[in-house]
Amino acid sequence: MNATPRWLTSEQKAAWDSFIRMQETLIGRLSRRIQADSGMSASDYIVLVSLTERGGGRMRFLELAKSVEWEKSRMSHQVGRMRKRGLVAREECPDDGRGAFIVATPAGYRAIGEAAPLHVEHVRRLFIEALTQEELDTLARISNRVLAHMEKQPD
């Protein structure tokens, strides 16, 4: 038995549509800038940031996939492309024959080291400078609330 859909109110739809358009436009522009500035894809950048900022340069494959909210197959393809270009390496896990570590190589560290300062400037120019500190604080609170709410919801 299908329940009647709970459609969004016009105000809810306007908020949702604005959020999606802002997010897609911002991510699209930042992705194009990363590619133009560094030759890396946005996916390369996300993986290298996760490895170097959160993982100390190495993470278990599944932990890395979870940290960027990707499916295993997407991460596997991405890591394969990055390995071919020498940005990451794969190391077997000595205490778990099925597990593996993904490790940022010296070339990966150089690539992220060169790309990150330019990326931060674009984030500042396109996003940070558009908002007051109070608005940034409010956005951070809202984002954290939505993230906490999603943690409680089934995937």
Automatic annotation (TrEMBL):
PROSITE patterns in UniProt: HTH_MARR_2
GO molecular function: DNA-binding transcription factor activity
SMART domains: HTH_MARR
InterPro entries in the cross-refs: HTH_MarR-typ, MarR/SlyA-like, WH-like_DNA-bd_sf, WH_DNA-bd_sf
GO biological process entries: response to stress
Domain HTH marR-type: 1-148
Top-level lineage group: Bacteria
Name under which the protein is recorded: MarR family transcriptional regulator
Organism encoding this protein: Streptomyces hainanensis
